[in-house]
């Protein structure tokens, strides 16, 4: 959408991927005074916390698209704010900090696409539901599974992707038997 995007990370491989994709990568502490809109999407806790919130520009907007409402330290904002305008706009709360700046929190730090918008488009959920349905069917098909969290088997991931491509009217190439053999061996080459 033409946004000037900064990525913050804790994982070196993900950070390198972001840098290679052309994004600026830096610690949250350095991004805090630069950003206008902050979106957490980590599944982690207190990714945006007191020192970051205090370093942000007046009028900065923060929201969360990760799992729970703890990615942004809202509890700190509630404690530290000298004034909270709970109806700054629909689904927007303005926290007035001691440094005179206002931080706008969308949807109380809950999943912003669900709290402030209309949730996931069907084009996304169809793949999630197809994966859940096929994985459930696989689990009760007689496979012996240890009691732990398992990855969805790759053949089911591929099946969902193939169904989705077909529904989108997109065709792709198939490996020839010669290519399959070549890719699964190491004898041929210079
Ligand atoms: N809002 C939605 O509709 C929606 C949809 C799908 C997933 N999710 C949620 O989004 C979250 C991310 O999902 P994902 O599949 O991208 O997970 P992921 O594990 O692939 O990505 C999360 C990234 O956050 C990074 N991270 C963790 N702690 C960090 C920190 N303190 N600072 C900076 N980066 C940090 C990790 O290194 C990782 O690269 C999950 O909590 C997931 O449940 C939300």
Write a structural description.
- By secondary structure, the chain is an alpha/beta fold.
- The protein folds into 2 domains: 84 residues, Rossmann fold; 62 residues, no CATH class.
- It contains 8 helices and 7 strands, in the order βαβαβαβαβββαααα.
- The strands form 2 sheets. It has a 5-stranded mixed sheet with strand order 3-4-7-6-5, with no helix packed on it. The chain has a two-stranded parallel sheet with strand order 1-2.
- Strand 6 and strand 7 form a beta hairpin.
- Helix 6 runs antiparallel to helix 7.
- It is elongated, with a radius of gyration of 23 Å.
- The mean pLDDT is 95.
- Bound molecules: nicotinamide-adenine-dinucleotide (NAD).
- The site of nicotinamide-adenine-dinucleotide (NAD) has 16 residues, from loops.
Number of domains: 2
CATH topology description of the largest domain: Rossmann fold
Largest sheet: 5 strands, mixed
Listing every helix as H and every strand as E from the N terminus to the C terminus, the arrangement reads: EHEHEHEHEEEHHHH
CATH class of the largest domain: Alpha Beta
Secondary structure class reads alpha/beta
Which features would summarize this protein structure in a list?
5-stranded mixed sheet; binds nicotinamide-adenine-dinucleotide; alpha/beta; Rossmann fold; elongated; two-stranded parallel ribbon; 190 residues
């Amino acid at each position: 959408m033409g946004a000037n995007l900064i990525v913050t990370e804790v994982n070196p491989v993900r950070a390198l991927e972001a840098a290679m994709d052309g994004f600026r990568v830096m610690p949250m502490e350095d991004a805090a005074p630069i950003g206008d809109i902050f979106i957490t999407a980590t599944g982690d806790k207190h990714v945006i916390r007191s020192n970051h919130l205090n370093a942000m520009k007046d009028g900065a907007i923060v929201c969360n698209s990760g799992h729970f409402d703890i990615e942004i330290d809202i509890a700190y904002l509630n404690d530290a704010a000298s004034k909270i305008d709970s109806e700054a706009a629909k689904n927007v709360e303005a926290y007035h900090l001691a440094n005179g700046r206002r931080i706008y929190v969308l949807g109380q730090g809950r999943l912003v696409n669900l709290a402030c918008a209309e949730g996931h488009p069907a084009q996304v959920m169809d793949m999630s539901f197809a994966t859940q349905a096929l994985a459930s069917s696989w689990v009760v098909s007689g496979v012996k599974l240890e009691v732990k969290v398992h990855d969805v088997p790759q053949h089911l991931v591929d099946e969902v992707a193939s169904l989705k491509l077909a529904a989108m009217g997109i065709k792709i190439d198939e490996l020839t038997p010669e290519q399959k053999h070549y890719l699964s061996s190491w004898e041929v080459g210079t």
